């Protein structure tokens, strides 16, 4: 019977429950298929701290070697450390991780040489087809000359390379709390921060893929509560939280308040533009804050808006020769890091910016985080297209309102905007709203949610592109996107 990989092979990676959905035998076939599709004669493999990662990555290596590829095993690493190895060694790579997913999950993030992404349209579909075929016929016979499997440590070189991309030599002493969530940040942070004037306060640095303290998913506010409390207790200058494979970094200021990833995107964009003589293109997805393209233009750069998802960001990075890209989900992409994402490099930029002046982080980021945002609000709906059409119809004919469908539905008034996107995997609609002030943001948010959820948010105030709130008094006007 052909293996059913429909729930295992996602848009950008392989991810599922072990051993229910996949195991070492299947990992070995993925390794062989990866070599077949990439035509690689050598690859590099790394893995995270999950209990199943060493065995799965070892099986993948055996499959790859059986097809004639020499395999370099870099062992425990963050995902961006694997991208560093792929870029610096110019080899296709495979990272065994399920990122922020619970302990029973594992997965594979694959890339071509130079950390170029492998997704459904760039090889992953072909890999899936081969594995499904071999589940019936068996894998092809090993080549006459199988490849070798050798070990190599890249952590020190990875740290040195990151530090060559941002000047932290003159920063003032900083007290920094880092919550690694028992993930790979506990492996990389001590080496990267080793020579910095930083008083490091570690939290949950013990590598433990069962996540005994909290899920390694800082996007969920409950998972940064410990960090926020510790920053306040320590009187720290800032806090950093990494996800399980440490490719994303979230920032908490000295007040224990989370800093919007859009604010970090704008801050890093300004610094990367300065580093490139005030010229360059910066990519941002369509639900980052309006402050991002504003800051880019103010610093001499050209902003380019794209769909949500790392494959779209990376494609636009390559197409435009962009110097930097950022997403609302705290993925940060750098031209000088092979267009790949690295939360650690973004964190170093934050340290350099904060340590290069005397203001607290909250004051520093205020110039980059300018508007009131709702965050992403998920609503469970039975009919995503019908609800979206209802929202479109309610707003489209208002004076001064425009719509586009680059990714879901974006509705823009002269001074406010929102985006409504359907989940690809769940019966959810995701709403993001931004306005110049909190009152207007809430009004737009509540009207949209009333339409999305029906009676779920009754009594929400109506908002129109040029509405008035009284005789001669214009409604608060949020920013134009």
Automatic annotation (TrEMBL):
InterPro entries: A-D-PHexomutase_a/b/a-I, A-D-PHexomutase_a/b/a-I/II/III, A-D-PHexomutase_a/b/a-II, A-D-PHexomutase_a/b/a-III, A-D-PHexomutase_C, A-D-PHexomutase_C_sf, Alpha-D-phosphohexomutase_SF. Belongs to the phosphohexose mutase family. PANTHER family: PHOSPHOMANNOMUTASE (PTHR43771:SF1). One of its GO terms (molecular function) is metal ion binding. The keyword Magnesium applies. Pfam families: PGM_PMM_I, PGM_PMM_II, PGM_PMM_III, PGM_PMM_IV. The keyword tRNA processing does not apply. It comes from Streptomyces brevispora. SUPFAM superfamilies: Phosphoglucomutase, C-terminal domain (SSF55957), Phosphoglucomutase, first 3 domains (SSF53738). Signal peptide: none annotated. Its cofactor is Mg(2+). This is Phosphomannomutase. Residues 376-448 form the Alpha-D-phosphohexomutase C-terminal domain. NCBIfam families: PRK09542.1. Keywords: Isomerase, Magnesium, Metal-binding, Phosphoprotein. Residues 7-134, 157-256, 266-371 form the Alpha-D-phosphohexomutase alpha/beta/alpha domain. Gene3D superfamilies: Alpha-D-Glucose-1,6-Bisphosphate, subunit A, domain 3, Alpha-D-phosphohexomutase, C-terminal domain.
